Amino acid sequence: LYPRYVVENIRQYGYMDENRFINLSEQVTYAIPEITQLADSIRVQCRWVTAWEGPMHRVVFHPYQASCYDLLHALKRKFPALRVGWVFWSFELYNRPSVYMQLLGPFSTQFYQNSKPFYHRFVKGLKQSWPGQVLVDLLYRVFDKALVSERLYLRSIRQVDDFYALLEEDFHYLQQVTPFAASVIYHRMAYLSLERMLGSAGLGEIKSEGNTLMVGHAAGIEGNQFEVLEKLNQMQLARKIFIPLAYGDAAYRDQLAAYATSHLQDVEILLEKMTPEAYYQKLREVGFCVMNVRVQQGIGNITALLWMGCKLFLSEQSSTYRE
Q1: Which of 59, 92, 178, 234 is least enclosed, having the fewest CB within 10 Å?
Q2: Looking at residue 18, what is its pLDDT?
Q3: Integer-rounded Cα radius of gyration of the chain
Q4: What secondary structure does DSSP assign to 121-171, as a single string?
Q5: At what angle are helices 130-142 and 118-126 packed, to 10 degrees?
Q6: % of the chain at pLDDT higher than 90
Q7: Residue 45 has what pLDDT?
Q8: How far is CA 4 from CA 8, 33, 130, 191, 246, in A?
Q9: What are the backbone angles phi and psi of residue 87, rounded to the nearest 5°?
C-alpha cells in the first residue's frame, strides 16, 4: 500500500527520472512498472548494483531489516559517500529474535510455543547465541540467501544517516538497543495525512457515534487480545464488542474468535478485509478501544480513533503510549 503511495506522489511532482524503486520482498509484489522486483539472492542484488550506471546519492529503506543487509553492503562498496535513510515500520523491531518473546502476553507465549514447529523454535533460539548466529550467517552465504543474523544486522545499522518515524520515542528506544552512529538524524514522518487516511468522507464528517468497545486491530499474536477478552468476560460488560481479525495469524484468529463467541454476549468479529474508506466508516461505531500491543502497531487505527473522539486504552509498555 505505502510503496504505491510513494510512487504516486513522486510521479505527481515530476521526480520519476531521479528515483528508482526496488522491492526486496518475495511475499509481496506490486503491479507497478516503476517498481523493480529483486530476487532474494545475494548474487542477483550485487549484479543489480554492479550494472548501475551513473551516480547514486541516497538510498532509503522501508523498512531496513536483515534482508536488506547485502544490498546496502554492495551499495556502500560502490558508492562510499551514499547517504542511507531508514523509514521505520516497527516490524523490524518486534521481529528480532532477542526482542520478540518479550512482546507476548501469557496466552500468546503459550500459543507461540504450541503452534510453531520445533524446527522454527530451534532456529529462532539458535539465532540468539553468538556461535549460532555465525553458523546461520555461513549457511546464508552458502545457499545464496540475502539474509543475515541479528549480529551483522545490528552492526550495519551504524551506516544509517537518517531515521524517519512518526514517534520519536521509537528512535530513542532503538538508540538504546542498536549501535546507531552518533551523527544519525531523526526526522518525524507520517505515512499518510489524515485526509488521505480517512478517504472520501472527509475529516469533518467522520466522528464516533457509537458505544461499541473495540479490542485490538489485527490477528497478530503480538496483539495480546486474549487477556483483554478474559477481563471483559469477568466484568460481564453490557456492551457490544468489536474485534478486527482480518489480518494476521489464521490459527490465532480462530482461537480468539472461538473464545469470544463462546464467552461474550454481544460480539462482532471482522474476518474479511475492507477498503480503507469502508473500514474507517465502520470505526464510527466505536466509542472505546483497548490496544494491548506492547510495541508501536496500529498507528492508523489509533490516529483515526483519536480524531473521531474515541476513548483509547494503550499498554504502558508501548512507545505510542509513552509519547
Answers
A1: 234
A2: 85
A3: 21
A4: HHHHHHTTSHHHHHHHHHHHHHTT-S---HHHHHHHGGG--EEEES-HHHH
A5: 110
A6: 45
A7: 92
A8: 6, 11, 38, 11, 21
A9: -90, 110
What is the CB-side half-sphere exposure of residue 263 using CA atoms within 13 A? Answer: 17
Cα dihedral 259, 298, 19, 147, rounded to 10, equals: -50
> Average pLDDT in the 182-194 region?
87
Residue with cell 550485487: 46
In 3D space, the residue among 198, 254, 191 whose CA is nearest the CA of residue 221 turns out to be 254
* Mean pLDDT computed over every residue of the chain: 87
Residue 119 has pLDDT above 70, yes or no: no
Whose grid coordinates read 546461520? 136
Q: Is 199 helix (H, G, I), strand (E, B) or coil?
A: helix
Element (H, E) at 269: strand 267-270
pTM as predicted: 0.85
Q: How far apart are CA 323 and CA 320, in angstroms?
A: 5
Cell numbers 510455543: residue? 113
Rounded to whole angstroms, how far apart are CA atoms 23 and 184? 25
